[in-house]
Amino acid sequence: MKNIEIYTTMFCPFCARAKSLLKSKGVQFEEIDVTMDAPRRQEMMKRADGAHTVPQIFVDGEHIGDCDFIHHLDAAGNLDQILGKA
């Protein structure tokens, strides 16, 4: 099973969309809420090469991207393989 992490904030519609997509794929993920956690947000930005928007998704430590990008990967038929579902 792949280790999937998603950095989120409260009340973020993009975070909700990304989590919904991951749930629809039947994968488990660790949600890291950075709403009020500046050190974790800095960690996210460092890991995501400076990206400061949420969500940011990582699979086995590799930065996959944000909400729009994982939906793009899904539409292209590539997300399942990345998530270890193919």
What's the CATH topology label?
Glutaredoxin
Q: Any idea what the radius of gyration is?
A: 12 Å
Mean pLDDT equals 97
Low-confidence segments, given as residue ranges, are none
User: What is the structural class?
Assistant: alpha+beta
Shape: globular
In total, how many domains does the architecture comprise?
Answer: 1
How would you characterize the largest beta sheet?
A: 4 strands, mixed
The strand line-up of the biggest sheet is 2-1-3-4
Total DSSP helices: 4
Write down how many β-strands occur, each being a DSSP E stretch of 2 or more residues.
4
How would you describe what is shown here?
Strand 1 (4-8), helix 1 (13-24) and strand 2 form a beta-alpha-beta unit. The chain is globular, with a radius of gyration of 12 Å. With 86 residues, it is α+β, with helices and mostly antiparallel strands. The model has no long low-confidence stretch (mean pLDDT 97). It has a single domain (4-83), classed as Glutaredoxin (3-Layer(aba) Sandwich), CATH 3.40.30.10. It has helices spanning 13-24, 38-47, 67-75, 79-83, and strands at 4-8, 30-33, 56-59, 62-65.
